[in-house]
């Protein structure tokens, strides 16, 4: 028993809850994600610090009224953006304002007014080409308030008086005064490298390598555990062979169950950690119109791929995971100052062929065309009309796009020009009879 060795059987469930808490919420404050979270982390602090370091290579830091799990990133991940209170992902402008807010709060005292915070952020933003902050402009003001609200929600800023909502409508009609949780400020921004010294976002993923065989095996085991808890599904084809070997081993499943209380499901193509306790921020299948459309599309895609009487789905070369990382790196690096920007070569375009080459080693997946997806979405709306609101009936393309995006986030499909590639997870929904709860009209 390598993990939770000093935790009694009576406390094991509480310990596993604390592990899941930190894996989902790397920042824990007096109020975020709730008032019980920080005491739960402190209760098992020593065991958590040791186990999270050994199992995943993570570092747990405690700062007075905040705890921070400093994670090791193996790849750039665009699927977990900061979300505003209105449910919209942050854009570049909001991320920039958030970073400038943290820089200002790092220099601030224990209290700051919203106007003062906006003035100082504007001073920095107006020196950055194509950014700027004009509090008299509604778009700038709303983006700034979204960044401040993100900090409010996590307890980094606490309203002592007033309201940011009034200020957002009219800066001259309202004001807000905040208490600054300095422990949370310092815990929140913890870059692994000095940002002024890097020339590409890829440098944030770099780490020193050891020549020791034992150290390399330990690092591969940690990377395998990280992949299992951080990704919805891990395909063996998407990871290096040494990590795949650990994913196939029985020890990994036992370790993760001991740490998290969750079961690892293993199939011929890969593994996934089954969420039986509502741990994940987003689940599939889930609730809501987009989630319902996504699972119905998954059924249609699965039937299309395996239909023995229909036209065979053409298989095309799958994009290599490194190509996606190269594209994400290039996109992130466009935010560097022009004098230091790194121009990355675009990823090579996939070459399509009708038949697989058995000796090339290429990964080929069934291509599901956009036309099929549009037809399937239209059929879903016709068959389950009252389950989807008038907004979706008026804009089926948006419903299709959001459902496909959800399937991509969970590793069920890979978007490519002209459609999507079906991944093995789709097979779980083949021949499924789906039932959609109808809307109550009265």
Describe this structure in words.
This protein is an alpha+beta fold. The chain has four domains: 1-72; 92-188, Orthogonal Bundle (Arc Repressor Mutant, subunit A), CATH 1.10.10; 214-274, no CATH class; 289-334 and 362-429. Helix content is 44%, strand content 12%. The strands form four sheets. A four-stranded antiparallel sheet has the order 10-11-13-12. Strands 1-3-2 form a three-stranded antiparallel sheet, with helices on both faces. A hairpin with a 3-residue loop joins strand 8 and strand 9. 31% of the residues are buried. Residues 339-362 are annotated as: Disordered.
State the main characteristics.
442 residues, alpha+beta, Arc Repressor Mutant, subunit A, 4 domains, 4-stranded antiparallel beta sheet, 3-stranded antiparallel beta sheet, 12% strand, CHP02678, TIGR02678 family protein
Write the layout of secondary structure elements.
Elements: H1 9-24, E1 27-29, H2 37-43, H3 45-56, E2 59-63, E3 66-70, H4 92-107, E4 111-113, H5 114-125, H6 138-153, E5 157-162, H7 164-169, E6 176-180, H8 182-188, H9 213-230, E7 234-235, H10 241-248, H11 250-260, E8 263-266, E9 270-274, H12 289-306, E10 315-317, H13 321-333, E11 364-369, H14 370-383, H15 390-394, H16 396-409, E12 413-416, E13 419-422
Helix pairs in contact: 4-5, 4-6, 9-10, 12-14, 12-16, 14-16
């Amino acid at each position: 028993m390598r993990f939770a060795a000093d935790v009694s059987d009576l406390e094991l469930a509480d310990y596993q809850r604390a592990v899941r808490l930190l894996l989902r919420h790397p920042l824990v404050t007096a109020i975020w994600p709730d008032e019980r979270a920080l005491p739960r982390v402190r209760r098992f602090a020593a065991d958590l610090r040791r186990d999270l370091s050994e199992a995943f290579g993570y570092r747990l830091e405690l700062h007075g009224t905040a705890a921070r799990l400093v994670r090791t990133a193996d790849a750039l991940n665009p699927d977990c953006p900061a979300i505003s209170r209105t449910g919209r992902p942050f854009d570049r402008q909001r991320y920039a304002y958030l970073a400038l807010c943290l820089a200002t709060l790092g220099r601030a005292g224990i209290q700051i007014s919203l106007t003062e915070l906006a003035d100082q952020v504007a001073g920095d933003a107006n020196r950055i080409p194509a950014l700027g902050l004009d509090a008299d402009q509604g778009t700038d003001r709303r983006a700034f308030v979204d960044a401040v609200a993100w900090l409010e929600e996590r307890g980094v800023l606490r309203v002592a008086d007033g309201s940011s909502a009034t200020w957002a409508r009219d800066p001259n009609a309202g004001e807000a005064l905040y208490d600054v949780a300095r422990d949370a400020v310092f815990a929140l921004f913890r870059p692994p490298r000095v940002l002024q010294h890097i020339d590409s976002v890829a440098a944030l993923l770099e780490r020193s390598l050891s020549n020791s065989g034992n150290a390399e095996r330990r690092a591969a085991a940690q990377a395998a555990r990280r992949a299992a808890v951080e990704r919805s599904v891990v395909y063996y084809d998407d990871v290096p062979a040494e990590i795949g070997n650990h994913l196939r081993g029985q020890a990994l499943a036992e370790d993760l169950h001991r740490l998290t209380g969750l079961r690892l499901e293993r199939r011929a193509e890969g593994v996934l950690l089954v969420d039986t306790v509502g741990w994940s921020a987003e689940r599939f299948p889930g609730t809501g119109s987009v989630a319902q459309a996504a699972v119905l599309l998954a059924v249609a895609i699965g039937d299309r791929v395996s239909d023995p009487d229909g036209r065979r789905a053409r298989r095309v070369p799958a994009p290599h995971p490194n190509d996606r990382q190269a594209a994400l790196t290039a996109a992130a690096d466009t935010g560097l100052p022009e004098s230091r920007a790194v121009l990355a070569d675009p990823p090579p375009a996939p070459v399509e062929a009708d038949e697989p080459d058995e000796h090339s080693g290429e990964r080929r997946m069934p291509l599901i065309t956009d036309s099929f997806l549009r037809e399937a979405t239209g059929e879903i709306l016709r068959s389950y009309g009252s389950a989807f609101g008038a907004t979706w009936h008026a804009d089926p393309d948006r419903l299709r796009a959001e459902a496909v995006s959800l399937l991509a986030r969970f590793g069920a499909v890979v978007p490519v020009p002209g459609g999507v590639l079906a991944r093995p997870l789709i097979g779980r929904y083949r021949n499924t009879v789906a039932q959609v709860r109808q809307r109550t009209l009265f």
